[in-house]
Automatic annotation (TrEMBL), chains A, B:
A biological-process GO annotation: isoprenoid biosynthetic process
Name of this protein: Heptaprenyl diphosphate synthase component II
Family: Belongs to the FPP/GGPP synthase family.
Keywords, comma-separated and alphabetical: Magnesium, Metal-binding, Transferase
Originating gene: hepT
Stored InterPro entries: Isoprenoid_synthase_dom_sf (IPR008949), Polyprenyl_synt (IPR000092), Polyprenyl_synt_CS (IPR033749)
GO molecular function: metal ion binding; prenyltransferase activity
Named cofactor requirement(s): Mg(2+)
Family annotation (SUPFAM superfamilies): Terpenoid synthases
Native source organism of the sequence: Sporosarcina luteola
One Pfam family hit: polyprenyl_synt
Transferase found in the keyword field: yes
Amino acid sequence: MEKLKLMSLYADFRKDLSFIEKELEQSIDSSSPVIRQASLLLLRAGGKRIRPIFVILSSQFGEYSMENVAKVAVSLELIHMASLVHDDVIDDSDFRRGFETVKARWNNRIAMYAGDYIFSRALVSIGEIEMPAVHQLLAETMLEICKGEIIQIEYQQQTNQSFRDYLRRIKRKTALLLSSSCELGALVSNATPETVGKLKRFGYFAGMAFQIVDDILDITSTDEQLGKPAGSDLLNGHLTLPTLYIKDDPEFQPFLLRSFDGSLTEEERGLMLTYIRKSGAIEKAQQVSNMYLKKAIAEVESLPDGEAKRALLQIAAFLGKRKF
Amino acid sequence: MEKLKLMSLYADFRKDLSFIEKELEQSIDSSSPVIRQASLLLLRAGGKRIRPIFVILSSQFGEYSMENVAKVAVSLELIHMASLVHDDVIDDSDFRRGFETVKARWNNRIAMYAGDYIFSRALVSIGEIEMPAVHQLLAETMLEICKGEIIQIEYQQQTNQSFRDYLRRIKRKTALLLSSSCELGALVSNATPETVGKLKRFGYFAGMAFQIVDDILDITSTDEQLGKPAGSDLLNGHLTLPTLYIKDDPEFQPFLLRSFDGSLTEEERGLMLTYIRKSGAIEKAQQVSNMYLKKAIAEVESLPDGEAKRALLQIAAFLGKRKF
C-alpha cells in the first residue's frame, strides 16, 4: 500500500536498489549463527532504504560508478541498522515495525555487540573507497550522531527544553545521516562542490522534515500502524515537536508527567492522544515540516533536469504526506 | 612499583608518549558533561598504553612522522577504551582496575553510547591519515574483534571447548589489536613490507602471551591486586587456558559448574582458587605464554638494532614476568 507507493518512486532505480540489497545481504553473512540471524532479522524488517536511495540519486549528478556508489550505500544503510540495534537496547523496545527486535530475541549484550559488528561491516564496506574526504566525512557524521544519542538521554524526561533543543536533537538523530548520504553519493561520483553542497542541504532539510513527520505519526497513528504503542516517544521520556507546543498547557501537564514517571494507565494514554490530536499542536508541527520540505525542494530545483531530480522532488513531496 | 618498571622501559619514548597522552585528552573533550566525565574517568584509570607504545616503537623502523604516528596511536587507544566500556556492560563489572566503571556510575545505556562515541572519535583521529590501506586494516581488525565479542558470548558457560577455541578467542580479544598497532605504526611510516610483516607478527605473538598472562593472573592474584574478585573469568562463565587444562578433572568440576550457575560461595571460591593454583595448570599455561613470547622475540631479532628494537625486546620480556 503506502510502501508500494514509495517503491514506485524508486522505479527508475529499481535495478540499482536490488543490487544494493544483495550486497547488503552478502555483507552481513557471517559464520557466527547469532550474528547472521540477528542481522538477517534486521535486514528483513526492511525499512524504506531511504539512505541507499539518497546515495544513488545524488550520485547521478556526477560521474556515476555503481561499484563505488553501492559501497557507500551499503555502508550507510548498515550504520543506520547498527544504530537501530543500539536504539533498541536503549528504549527497551521489543518490537520494531511489528518485527521482534534483536534485543528481545537474544539480550542486551548480544544486541550491543551485533550493533558493533554491523557497524564494523559498514567501515569495511566504505573502506574500499580510496578517497580520504569520504572517510573523514563519515567519521565526523558518526561522531555527531553518537553525541546526539547521549544528549538524547541527557534530555530524557526533562520538561524544560526549547524548540532549538528539539531541532538540534533530530538533526543528529536523523537529518545528518540523510545529509551525509546525499553528500557522499555526490562526492564519490566527483560532482562539483556546488552540486555536493546542494544535495547535502537537500538531505539535511528532507531529514528534518522526515523526523518531524515521524514524531507526528507517533501521536496520530494507531498502535497497529506503528507496531508499538502510539505515544511511545512520551512513554520513553522524549518530548517531540507536537508535544513541545503544549508541554506547559495545564490540561496536558498531568499526562506528560505521568508518561514520564511511568504511571500512565492505558485509558489515560487514549485520552492523552486524543487531547494532543485536538490541540492544534499536530498542525503546527506539520507546518514546520512543510517549511523544511520547501527548503529541500528549493535546493534541488536548480540542479539539472532528469530522472534523479524528478525522483528527489517526488520523495520530498511524499515524505510530507506519508502515513507510515 | 610494577607500573614504574614498565614506564622505565618507555623512558626513551617518554616525550612521544606524553604528546599522545595530551592528544588523547584533547580528543575526548566534549561539550556534553556526561561524555566528558565518562571519558576522563576511563583515561585516568589509565592502563599500560601498550597500543600507543607499540605504534611508536614500530614506527621507528620506517620514516618516523610524529604527527601521523600520534593519530594512529590515539585512534588505537580510543578503540581499546571503547571496547573496555562495552565490556563493562557485558560483564556487569562495577570496577575496573579499582576505578568505578562508566557503567556503574551512569548506566548501561550511557556506557553503550559512550563506547560508540569514543569509537567514533577514534575514526575521526585516524580519518586524517590519507592512506587507504590504513583504513582498510583498521576496519578489518575491528570487524574481527566484534565477531570475537559475540563468539565469546556464544561460548560463555560452555564446558565443551578446545584449546583452539580459546586461542581463537584471545586472538580476537587481544592479539589482533596489538598486532594491528604494530602493523599500522610501521605502515604509516612507510616501513618495507618485510618489516611491516615482522612487526605485525611480533604484535600478534606478544598479544597472545599478554592475554594468557592476564588469564593466569585472574587466578593467581589477590582481589586487591586485581581490583575485582580473583576467579572473575570463571564467575563470568569464561573458561581460560589454566582452567581448560583441568576442566574435566572430577575434583574441579563441581567448582566449575557452581561458578557458571552462580551458586559458588565465597568460601568455595577460595578453595577453588587454591585448587587451581596447586594443580599444575598455571605452569602449563605459563609455558604456552613463554612459547608465544619466544616467537615474538624471534620476529624482532632480525630488525635493525637501536632503541626501538631494545624496547620491544624488553617489553616482551616484561610481559612474560609481569605481576599486574
